């Protein structure tokens, strides 16, 4: 079953700004789809419409065959923002536990899952730390662990590595790919880094600005599983170039 | 221990130096009639301990009562105003205007309303003083939650109540405590100033007023020492409660 199905989605904000216009997009299970485009192209808005955090002005968003709202109520997705949004009054372990508490899991089961998640994001031993004791990259890994803790089949990510330095970002890119492979989830990923989009994705959706529209969709045929070596592959550079050209055709000045 | 000693040593040193300066320079210079020496004040404190202690306790109870009422109402008002923005828009200008009124000026009126000898009149003054800082701070805390923190909770389909309990309230706590700490001092001020306009002979403010009238300045100063000690103890108590409930906060770890 198609995981995300967008049909004619438009969004007009109060004051008449048209953020999105006529978006049609299907995301199939196990896909890793990146939304890329200039600032103001509505890619974050589109992600929030999929997550039912914003309602579209027109069109429909369907997630796992139901309305985006029902999907949210059923906790069908996990979300990661540009900021880690960790709660300072909770330890790392307790932050990861939060969605599990809301789901009504018992303590023992929660603890077991937290341990598993910390292992997954390579933060074993940090369970009792407080968020401010961690670096930005570590905080973002906690946020990813939290989003994955209740095993949603869909992961929504809004520029999760945008605030990190280049080296940390590349390392977390590789980590994310192995997590994606391990958890067999579907990812919709917002970014404005071209190499990041190409490295991570199975498909890159290039958007144009004002109003935000889908300009082109580019299949990324780099072999799986991908490692850091892919970044030096000739095909990688070709794909980076074609995404860049698509952005330019969509009206971005580079 | 060693570190605590190093931190506290300068404080103790300044205190001792201040006392010596007062005792041997300031008081002799101004004349003991204007400014009694610390030794005189200490003697008077010792002599009238029982009376002063009871007066202090009496006044502290008024302050505590006013604090509880004022802070309670302040928190309730903040919850309502943070929840219903339109209400806040309509009422906030009046709260701000009311806060600009020198509330102490209402002291005689409160005495008139609740009875001069009734502790409730002093509680009312203290409560009015406490209300505003607690309300403003709590409201700022409740409304300063980053939008993404709320979105995250909504993505988990959390109810408004759960969002309040798990995000809004903990975010507001440091702000709330700032308000409460200001209110401890204000509640003591409210109670004592209320007493200056008349009150039970058992009250500290009345004691200060009377001893000044009788030119027993050491006793007046001794009463002031009691009042300050109680104010400091009250402030410290809230400080301890803050540490206890917010051990997680970066500030509690010196970071």
**Separate helix tally of chain A:** 8
Distance between the amino and carboxyl termini of chain B: 20 Å
Strand content of chain A: 15-25%
Main beta sheet of chain B: strand number and arrangement? Answer: none
Question: Rg of chain A from C-alpha positions?
Answer: 18 Å
Please give a structural write-up.
- The complex is a heterodimer of chains A (254) and B (255).
- Chain A is 37% helix and 24% strand.
- With 254 residues, chain A is an alpha/beta fold.
- In chain A, the strands form two sheets. Chain A has a six-stranded mixed sheet, sandwiched between helices. In chain A, strands 2-1-4-5 form a four-stranded antiparallel sheet.
- In chain A, helix 3 packs parallel to helix 5 (136-148) and helix 7 (194-200) crosses helix 8.
- The model of chain A has no long low-confidence stretch (mean pLDDT 89).
- By secondary structure, chain B is mainly alpha-helical.
- Chain B contains ten helices and no strands.
- Chain B is globular, with a radius of gyration of 22 Å.
- Classes of the chains: A alpha/beta (254), B mainly alpha (255).
- Chains A and B meet through strand 6 and helix 3 of A and helix 7 and helix 8 of B.
Briefly, what is this?
The complex is a heterodimer of chains A (254) and B (255). Chain A is built from eight helices and ten strands. Chain A has 254 residues and is of the alpha/beta class.
List the defining traits of the structure above.
heterodimer; A: four-stranded antiparallel sheet; 8 helices; B: 255 residues; globular
């Amino acid at each position: 079953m198609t995981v995300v199905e967008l049909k004619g989605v438009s969004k007009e904000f109060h004051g008449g700004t048209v953020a999105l216009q006529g978006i049609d997009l299907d995301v199939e299970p196990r896909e890793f789809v990146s939304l890329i485009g200039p600032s103001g192209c509505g890619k974050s808005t589109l992600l929030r419409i999929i997550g039912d955090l914003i309602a579209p002005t027109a069109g429909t968003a369907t997630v796992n065959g139901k309305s985006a709202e029902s999907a949210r109520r059923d906790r069908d997705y996990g979300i990661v923002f540009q900021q880690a949004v960790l709660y300072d009054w909770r330890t790392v372990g307790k932050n990861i536990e939060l969605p599990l508490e809301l789901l009504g899991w018992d303590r023992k089961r929660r603890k077991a899952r937290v341990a598993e998640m910390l292992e997954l994001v390579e933060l074993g031993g940090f369970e009792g730390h407080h968020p401010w004791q961690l670096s930005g990259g570590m905080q973002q890994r906690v946020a990813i662990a939290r989003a994955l803790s209740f095993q949603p089949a869909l992961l929504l990510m809004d520029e999760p590595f945008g605030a990190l330095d280049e080296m940390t970002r590349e390392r977390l890119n590789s980590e994310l790919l192995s997590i994606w492979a391990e958890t067999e989830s579907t990812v919709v990923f917002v970014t404005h880094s071209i190499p990041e989009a190409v490295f991570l994705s199975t498909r890159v959706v290039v958007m144009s600005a004002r109003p935000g529209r889908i300009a082109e969709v580019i299949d990324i045929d780099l072999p799986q599983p991908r490692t850091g070596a892919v970044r030096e592959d000739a095909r990688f550079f070709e794909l980076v170039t074609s995404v860049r050209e698509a952005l330019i055709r969509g009206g971005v000045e580079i | 221990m060693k570190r605590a000693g190093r931190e506290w040593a300068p404080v103790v040193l300044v205190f001792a130096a201040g006392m010596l300066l007062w005792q041997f320079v300031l008081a002799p210079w101004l004349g003991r009639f204007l400014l009694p020496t610390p030794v005189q004040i200490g003697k008077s404190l010792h002599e009238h301990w029982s009376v002063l202690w009871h007066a202090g306790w009496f006044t502290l109870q008024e302050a505590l009562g006013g604090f509880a009422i004022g802070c309670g109402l302040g928190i309730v008002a903040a919850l309502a105003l943070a929840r219903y923005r339109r209400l806040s828009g309509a009422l906030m200008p009046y709260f701000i205007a009311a806060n600009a009124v020198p509330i102490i000026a209402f002291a005689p009126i409160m005495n008139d309303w609740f009875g001069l000898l009734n502790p409730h009149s002093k509680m009312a003054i203290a409560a009015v003083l406490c209300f505003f800082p607690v309300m403003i701070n709590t409201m700022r805390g409740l409304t300063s939650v980053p939008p993404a923190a709320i979105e995250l909770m909504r993505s988990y389909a959390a109810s408004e109540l759960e969002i309040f309990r798990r995000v809004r309230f903990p975010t507001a706590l440091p702000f709330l405590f700032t308000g409460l700490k200001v209110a401890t001092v204000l509640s003591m001020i409210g109670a004592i100033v209320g007493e200056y306009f008349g009150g039970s002979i058992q009250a500290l403010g009345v004691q200060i007023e009377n001893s000044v009238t009788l030119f027993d300045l050491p006793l007046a100063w001794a009463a002031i020492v009691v009042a300050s000690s109680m104010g400091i103890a009250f402030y410290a108590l809230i400080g301890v409660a803050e540490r206890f409930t917010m051990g997680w906060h970066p500030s509690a770890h010196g970071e």
